[in-house]
From TrEMBL:
GO MF, one example: mannose-1-phosphate guanylyltransferase (GTP) activity
EC code(s) of this entry: 2.7.7.13
Name of protein: mannose-1-phosphate guanylyltransferase
Domain Mannose-1-phosphate guanyltransferase C-terminal, first and last residues per copy: 251-358
Transmembrane segments: none
Listed pathway(s): Nucleotide-sugar biosynthesis; GDP-alpha-D-mannose biosynthesis; GDP-alpha-D-mannose from alpha-D-mannose 1-phosphate (GTP route): step 1/1
Keywords: GTP-binding, Nucleotide-binding, Transferase
Top-rank EC class of the record's enzyme: transferase
Amino acid sequence: MKAIILAGGYGTRLRPLTLTKPKPLVEFCNKPMVLYQIEALAQFGVTHVILAVSYLSDMLHREMEVEAKRLNIKMSISREKKPLGTASALALARQYLEVGDDPFFVLLSDVICEFPFDEMIKFHKEKNCEATIAVTKAEEPSKCGVVIYEKDTGIIGRFVEKPFEYVSNDVNAGFYIFSTSVLDRLQLQPTSIEKEMFPAMAVDRQLYAFELKGFCMDVGQPKDYLTGTSQYLDYIRRSNPDRLTRENGTDGNVLVDSTAKIGERCRIGPNVVIGPRVIIQDDVCLKNCTILGDSLIKSHSCIADCIIGWGCNIGQRVRVESTSVLGLDVSVQDELFIKGGVIYPHKTISESIYEPKTLI
């Protein structure tokens, strides 16, 4: 079987992290987010993965070629000169997708879940339809595209984009199965699977909903990235608790890379991820945050509800909170307060930020 991962966007919602690395390579719980998908596909039996890429595509290609060899799968690159839209990205990759008669998976690159591919493909074949959408429950459906479908049959009737009034909390989870007949609907011009193809399929009653169990998150923006981290760490606690750190100073679910170093009298957790070669000095407090690789958090600092980028240097007695996101190589001088700061790469911060603010 084949799968195509749509990874051609600029990742604007996750800036400043995506200014120096394509979003699919941004680590989520110490692994590039797209690698969760590729490993799950390979484990299911998919032998050919196509990456539809555009922005920083060479970096993505190099890293995923190494993973493809490790997983013993074929990796192909479909490169867009500029982002085309989800449907036209499929059209550009048609040469790979039309080989054979088997249905193929389509995934958006920033979705993290348990990926029940075996159950989903069985459902798709039983329904003998053109396409199956994985749907999940959303806490805030007004921010999403709501899927209205028959609960007994799974047939999708219509979509409601970001409804003002409650109609359902079933939303598109961001991955699909397509039969090869879908290729006849494609055009090599900017078009969207979700906004143009799916409504047409629903009219033809060729579109079905597969209900996901367990957690599912689009982690493509900071708030959802942090929420998804807490959900994924809880999943690890239930499925493979030995991966989590249970040391003095930790509280709740904490994931620490083996190369990281943590000082004395620290308070770490819950919902904390510490990346490779990170140094946490003494008396540091970390809560609901991710510290990406090669960063240094100096003594007596407190990081809460934030993402600290690669190679950052956080001074002593610094407090960073309120969904702040620091890009690559940001330095924060001693005794500063940062609230809701979005700080672009290679900046040195010498004054506190008391209100949400972007520093370019």
